[in-house]
Amino acid sequence: MSSHWKRRRRSDSQNEGHVDDWLMTYADMITLLLCFFAVFIAIAIPDEVKFEEAKKKVSEQFSGTTNEYLKGVYSLPPTPNDTPPAAEEPFKALPSIVDRFNGNENIEIEKGDRITTIEMNSAPFFPKGAATLSEDGQKVLAELKTTLSSDEYKDYTISVEGYTDDTPIKTAQFPSNWELSTARAAAVVRSLIELGVSPQRLRAVGFAETSPKVPNRDDAGNDVPENQAQNRRVVIRLEKITKHK
Q: 153 or 100: which carries more pLDDT confidence?
């Protein structure tokens, strides 16, 4: 019994020694948390003096009072002239075709990156119901030829499109508006070729009355002469050729 009692007391003593082991783990965790929050607070609170100095230098840089940016770290090269460059004159960079016909009420020009359209009212170019190009029309095309032959448009195809209003026509020469619109487009093409524009760049297309800009008639079906005049037109469409590599 004595021996058994001694072994039991020794076992109880060992167990009592392990009872408080969790306190050591808990104490270590608390210590680590305290260290973490101490570092976190130290980083989170900025040095106000240095912060104000940096903010001042950035403000000076953007206000133009100095060319230094965060002195001691980066320095921008001095600008040779602080005066901003003069703004480019309006329309200076636009193509000559716009300047050439600007103010002509019978010609509208719309220039895009790849397509430029020149819309001409057909009244000054062709007599009513005819496809013979007038002298005024020939003069306009002569001016236009200079632009079409320039380096700016050398890589453009030229499509001449004829349009009419919806007034029917039936003559020996023009049985319908299809023949009339196509003949007018062909007359412009022929004149451009005579002026020296390459035939390989040109084509003539007739649309008759199928693509009006504005309605030819009102809701009651009556003619609207002003609208019909707008729909009688010739359009020169310049389209840049896409070169495949």
A: 153
